[in-house]
Amino acid sequence: MTEPIEPHDGSPQAPASDRARPLVGHQAVITGGSKGIGRGIAELFVEAGASVTIVARDPDAAGTTAAVLAGLAGPDQEVDMVLADVADRDGIDALFDELEARLPRLDIFAANAG
Fold this sequence. Notes:
- By secondary structure, the protein is an alpha/beta fold.
- It is built from four helices and four strands.
- It has helices at residues 16-19, 36-47, 59-72, 89-102; strands at 27-31, 51-56, 79-83, 108-110.
- The protein has a four-stranded parallel β-sheet, sandwiched between helices.
- The relative contact order is 0.21.
């Protein structure tokens, strides 16, 4: 019998049931996450098991996308949205202040807008 392959970080290999969802327990933030490529990225992260926070300027699009993502999410996942404009430094600073207040940690940040 061969030994299980250890990931590069030294943590034990995920059970087979989690291998299809390698991001279980991770928190991802996607700017521009309500439409287009950003929405696609958010959907892939949810399908991979991550909890996802989308960042967008349009409240209607963000709300619609968050509802769709929540429908894809499992019981161990959270889906949230933050309304923010990351086109300038003040908007970026405000976004990170909000994320720090909401999230226990940040594992993945996809900078898709700004």
